[in-house]
Amino acid sequence: MKNRVVVTGLGVCAPNGVGLENFSKALNSGQSGIRFYNELKELNFSCQIAGKPNIENIDLNQYFSKVQLKDLNANGLLYGVIAGVDAWNDATLEKSTAETPDWDAGIIFGTGILGVDKFRESIYKLDKGDVRRLGSTSVIQTMASGISAYLGGILGCGNQVTTNSSACTTGTEAILMGFERIQEGKAKRMLVGSCSDSGPYVWGGFDAMRILPRNYNDNPEAASRPMSANAAGFVPGSGAGTLVLESLESALERGAKIYGEILGGAVNSGGQRAGGSMTAPNNTAVQRCIQEALSNAAISADAIDAINGHLTATSKDPVEIDNWQQALQRKGGEFPYINSFKSQIGHCLAAAGSIECVGTMLQLDQQVLFRNANCEDVHPDILKLVPTDKIPKKTLNFPVKIIAKASFGFGDVNACLIFSTYTE
Predict the structure, then answer these.
(1) Could you tell me one molecular function GO term of this UniProt entry (predicted)?
(2) Partners of 413 in the beta sheet?
(3) Which of 124, 142, 250, 373: CA 20 to 30 A from 323?
(4) Residue 56 CA to chain centroid, in angstroms?
(5) Each residue of 187-232: pLDDT tens digit?
(6) What are the structural domains, with CATH classification, of the chain?
(7) Stated pTM of the model
(8) 327, exposed or middle or buried, with CB in 10 Å at 0-12, 13-18, 19+?
């Protein structure tokens, strides 16, 4: 008998809200976190807008020691530690203060690239021959596993502490990996999630690819338009999202609040075949991933009440909708409700899946479906498949039990999770 896995803690550092309360209010109201950045204009970016968490008023002493804060210059790491520690606290778990770590608690925390600004700073010092001035934290701030290493030390976790990286599927994949570890009895609780750095050295490559919107620099909040006929490319974002996963037995034993349950999930790759490429999905693989997630969760396609899509506001949005329709074999009015948080936060890259999974859990906990912003003009190819009332323009209050969440990433990789309300 495999362990049931529930969610007992949430933490988030998103462009439209840092902390659960702020993030929840923003999603409910449709508040955008996308802003114009003069720095991008000065660097001649075509797209001069982005989604970036505002942590200026956050007391970092609540999260780091004075020694850790010295020379700390990795914003993705900051976002990840804030979200991770907040999730741990939200789950009412204690940091291990004894010499012995908590052998039952582990971390899988992903990232795409970490510490770009710190890496750039180090390169300049090296080029000047100032190797002795790099400081003692340059390695841990720039290695991909630096985020899980920081969190592992802060919380005292003694189970598996590692980092995954799989482009835009990173966060969703990390959650599935933690789920499977608890399900198999290898851990009692896992802190899972992902983070992404912010700034021009992360976003510049996408601007060079000409896949970012360039006509909304004067109207940034209207720029990210998932499922819209006027979608002009994804708005780059950053941040972190975190979930505390726990065996149901452990959660009940300590009387923890349960946000919901993970029923199952799946990951796969299209192998960059049959239309799939480094930047485009193999549609058959996407559909298989969704169907395998349903099978792993032991539910039928008819059980899905809502979908939180990947939906990045590009020309691929209608293709994604068609893949959902093909995978679920639910057409017209039978199609589930569907939304995308990217209209408010942009595409947070490696952090996208985890931030959006936090939002998905909030929907289950509050029994709502958050609105789609900037989607007044639904793409005609989508309307051929999905009635407009299944794409809510305002937050809906209605009984929602099961939500499917998927992420698709560069390299033709896919991940899908099935979340549910908790029932005994």
Answers:
(1) acyltransferase activity
(2) 269, 409
(3) 373
(4) 22
(5) 999 999 999 999 999 999 999 999 999 999 999 999 999 999 999 9
(6) 1-424 (3.40.47.10)
(7) 0.96
(8) buried
